[in-house]
Amino acid sequence: MTVPATTAKVATRPREASAPRGGSSRSGALRLDELRLGEIVDGTALRAELDALGGPEGGLRAGDPELRARVLQILKGVNAHGRQAAQEMLFADGGGLSCAARISHLQDEIIRAVYAFALHHVFGSPNLSAGERMAILAVGGYGRGTLAPGSDIDLLFLLPYKQTALGEQVAEYLLYLLWDLGLKVGHATRSVEECVRLSETDFTIRTALLERRRVCGDEALFAELGARFEAEVQTGTGREFIAAKLAERDARHAKSGDTRYLVEPNVKEGKGGLRDLHTLFWIAKDHYRVDTREALVAKGVFSRREGQIFQKAEDFLWAVRCHMHFLAGKAEERLSFDIQPEIARRLGYSSHPGLTEVERFMKHYFLIAKDVGDLTGIFCAALEDEKAKDAPGLRAFVRSLRRRARSIPGTLAFLVDNDRITVADRHVFAADPVNLLRIFKLAAVHQLEYHPDALKLIRRSLRLIDASLRANPEANALFLDVLTDRTDPELHLRRMNEAGVLGRFIPEFGKIVSMMQFNMYHSYTVDEHLLRTVAEMSRLERGVSGEELPVSSAIVHTVKDRVPLYVALLLHDIAKGRPEDHSIAGEIIAYELCPRFGLDARETALVAWLVRDHLVLSMTAQQRDLTDRKTIRDFAERVQTLDRLKLLMIVTVCDIRAVGPGVWNGWKGQLIRTLYAETELVLTGGFSETSRDQRTQYARRQLAAHLEGWAEEERTRAVDGHYQNYLLTVPVDEQVRHAEFVRDADRAGRSFTTMAQTDRFRGITEITVLAPDHPRLLSIIAGGCAAAGANIADAQIFTMTDGRALDVVTVNREFTDDEDELRRAGRIARNIEALMDGREAIPAMLARRRAPRVLPSFAFRPRIDVDNGLSNLLTVIEVEGLDRPGLLADLTGAISDLNLDIRSAHISTYGEKVVDVFYVTDLLGLKIAGEGRTERIRRRLLAVFDSPEGEVSSPSAKPSPVAFGIVS
Fold first, then answer.
1. Does residue 253 contact residue 271 with C-beta atoms inside 8 Å?
2. What string of DSSP letters covers 456-506?
3. How do strand 804-812 and strand 863-867 relate by DSSP bridges?
């Protein structure tokens, strides 16, 4: 549903993301006179209209199908008008809670009208007997009086113990009308006795009934349920309920990734989302017998300011959720990339230098999610205090002994309470602001967690972190001690960040707190990524990653500059969100911060270099031909020393592994190890053709050892079947798998064959193709993938010594089930074979598959670079642009049309962006000469992005069966 532009113009612009957060400007409980409910639906008028329709003047009998059809028609109109009005009001006042309350009111009035109509005009029972009494209750979220546009409507039909058939008939009539309106209704029909009995053993039912609200029907029945529920269910079982709700929350967090900083968060179920606030409400209502924020403030659980933060967080999240439902036309809870720009526009965000409107909106979202986490910690601390006070007799005494605070050697400001550090009194930070850093150092040294009371006081003392504290040498030394802690630096930096200290102590870090990068490559916000990078370094040092990262784990203990390395890891992306290149801007920030931290001039320059060049190693490894000697020499000149190579290697590995699940894989690891090994030889003076040959021979011996037990002839053929670049870049376990694959094909006499394997964790499927080599082979493979709707995320092409090609393409996973995914791989193989034996041409095959074009969520200007200086023998074409299905097929087809021979290809996908690098020659094996020809290459490849619906290659490009050695 689209709101007219005239409505959208009056939307209230939210506060800046860096300002105090909130949704609408109102505070406190919702006031009915502010909701303008009469503009949503006039309940009296609706009931009167239905009465007229069912009365004598309506001319229709109770059982007449036309009567029901007319009722449904009226209700559809009321429902559509009410939802349209609610959406327009959401644009006008920005109130998420108000919108949810309006939609809840709309459903209330529809249910009341249908209930009254059914009793009076359908079943003719306006005066109910004791056995015919019933009450219709809203439960769950609907019971709170809030409802998102696409949410389920949870109803409880409450009946007396002895009941007649009328209750079930009315419930059935109402439900069918609601279903015909297109509403999703969850319902149950129970007596008071059944409700009480089920609530005693099922916490889900208990939670739903906790938020019961009478919509219509018998008040006495509703009151009876309330009295019995409180007396028989709630009394004496509060602790069990709290434990169950918190365990349920933890399980939900674990399922969604256990971080509130996922760049495509679930607004309802994710960490820091609405469900976390609902959990607080449930516990508050059960434990404190209150159901408003104001009551929690009155009981001292929250301060007045924290109560306001609660209200603003809830209002903001409801606004986002309601906009999402209106936009999607259904219950969409995941704030995905494709809808983030439109939600940002609806909420009135604008671009600032370095940050787009969607990035500013998402930063605001993550700050709100952080607020929700803070409130949860405060609430749990209050519950813990209540639990301690309520413990009876001897049990309380024993618990008090266990919880008795003990001192920490060397300080009077802090104590240990149940293995958590806490403050000795409320004035420790005011008396000495350095304590705001010292508490984290002490927690790291003694391996303590943090007491919620301490974190609460830290948040309330952030104003003490000023320029003088930032310049304090002791405070900076304490910070470095936390950053370089040998046990778990991530934990203490994370608590420091969540408490707000990290962003205040390092204002440059504060600017990237909760900042997302609007791309599909990074899974986390910038600050979360930096903390995870530090965690990866700690894992390396502690030997946790030794088996997966053998080279990095070996060299990490030889690094001389441990402190600069940790500082560089924390700062490498600190300049994200600025108009200039973040690596260059980060270098400037490093030069400013490092002397303040206490680093000397040499260490400062080292950190600045690592920040500036932190992407160079990964880009070279993934986008350049590592068998080209000029690639290695150019990289070695940039690195200059072996010590800097080691540091850059560790930064690169930690950076990639902290991007998101599945980003790091064995192929990237092998490329990085190869680049490191080749560069190490140059920097130590050991680079020579003989040395490379020795490493190649070692790789052959290693492969031969893994093929022990093979027939001698087959093993020799497998070991000698590959050139140097394959042996030095492909992991040995993959070499073994490929050798078995080639041996099976040779035994079966197949000139063309494929194999596939899935990787559920990485979300990809790998397809290996063995075929006679041909200049257009990569284009054929890419076309076969595109025709099956498969998007290529990576590709490696190798020519074997016998003239065959062994190409490995990685496609993004489409199906959840492995069997379905392998069937798709089979379709891809059949497509490739049909193209290779001449039965099909790429344009015709793609024309059958080509789906309607979907506008991408991202905008990215394509770039084509043709460079003769990166290789001594080959021309390098680097293509950067927005990814889409079939792109590689189009690019390789265009390169073939230009009469260029692809010698190697390096395909890299960074979310929605691809960087494809092709090493090419002309048909004579020479570099591309002449500016005119270079410009033609640029224009032709840019045309692939400008006209993605066009043909991949001309029909004349259809290969002949003879060229591929395939006999039909």
1. yes
2. HHHHTTGGG--HHHHT-HHHHHHHHHHHT-SS-HHHHHHHHHHTTHHHHHS
3. unpaired
Flag whether pLDDT at 886 surpasses 80: no
On whether both 138 and 78 belong to a single domain, the answer is yes
Question: Mind giving me the DSSP string for 662-706?
Answer: TSS-HHHHHHHHHHHHHHHHHHTT---HHHHHHHHHHHHHHHHHH
Is 905 in a helix, a strand, or coil?
Answer: strand
Does some domain include residue 308?
A: yes
The tens digit of pLDDT for each residue in 438-466 reads: 999 999 999 999 988 899 899 889 999 99
CB 202 within 8 Å of CB 244: no
Within 10 Å of residue 147's Cβ, how many Cβ atoms? 28
Q: Are residues 916 and 846 in the same domain?
A: yes
Contacts of range 590-597, beta carbons closer than 8 Å, 24 or more positions apart? 593/506, 593/508, 593/567, 594/564, 594/567, 596/470, 596/471, 596/476, 597/476, 597/479, 597/480, 597/567
Distances (CA, A) of 310 to 67, 276, 290, 639, 650: 47, 11, 15, 51, 42
- Sheet of 135-138: strand order equals 185-191, 153-159, 135-138, 213-217
pLDDT tens digits for 68-81? 899 999 999 999 99
Q: pLDDT (tens digit, 9 = 90+) per residue, 898-937?
A: 989 888 888 887 767 888 999 999 888 899 988 889 999 9
- Bridge partner residues of 414 (DSSP): 423
> Which of 342, 366, 399 corresponds to the end of one domain?
399
Average pLDDT of span 663-669? 78
Q: Are residues 257 and 213 in the same domain?
A: no
Answer with the residue of higher pLDDT: 458 or 731: 458
Residue 370 lies in a domain: yes
Residues 152 and 223 occupy one common structural domain: yes
Q: Round to whole Å and give the CA distance between 537 and 649.
A: 11
Q: Do 11 and 349 meet the contact criterion of CB atoms below 8 Å apart? A: no
Nearest-5° angle of CA 35, CA 39, CA 45? Answer: 125
Domain match, 192 and 278 both: no
Of 3-12, 155-164, 179-188, 614-623, the poorest mean pLDDT is in 3-12
261 and 187 housed in the same domain: no
Express the helix, strand and coil content of the chain in percent, nearest 5 each.
55, 10, 30
Contacts of 571 (CB under 8 A, 6+ apart): 530, 586, 589, 590, 593, 607, 611
Q: What is the pLDDT of residues 182-202, one digit of tens each?
A: 999 999 999 999 999 999 989
| Segments forming the whole domain that contains residue 919 | 753-964
769 and 871 in a single domain? The answer is yes
Q: Which residues contact 295 (CB under 8 A, 6 or more apart)?
A: 284, 288
What confidence tens digit (pLDDT) does each residue in 201-234 have? 898 899 899 889 999 999 999 999 999 999 999 8
Across 668-677, 780-789, 842-851, least confident range: 842-851
The answer, yes or no, to whether residue 849 has pLDDT greater than 90, is: no
Distance CA(564)–CA(542), nearest Å, equals 18
CA 728 vs CA 5, 16, 219, 633, 724: distances in Å: 60, 52, 79, 17, 6
Collect all residues with Cβ–Cβ distance below 8 Å to 459 and sequence separation of at least 6: 374, 499, 500
pLDDT at residue 956, as a whole number: 40
Residue type at 112?
A: R
Contact 783, 847 (CB under 8 A): no
Q: How far apart are CA 307 and CA 23, in angstroms?
A: 14
Using alpha carbons, list the distances in angstroms from residue 914 to 163, 793, 942: 67, 8, 14
Q: For residues 233 and 203, is the Cβ–Cβ distance under 8 A?
A: no
Q: Taking all residues of the chain, what is their mean pLDDT, rounded to a whole number?
A: 84
Lowest mean pLDDT across 227-231, 265-269, 459-463, 635-639? 265-269
Domain count of the fold of the chain: 3
- 789 with 852: CB under 8 angstroms? no
Q: What is the largest CA-CA distance in the chain?
A: 104
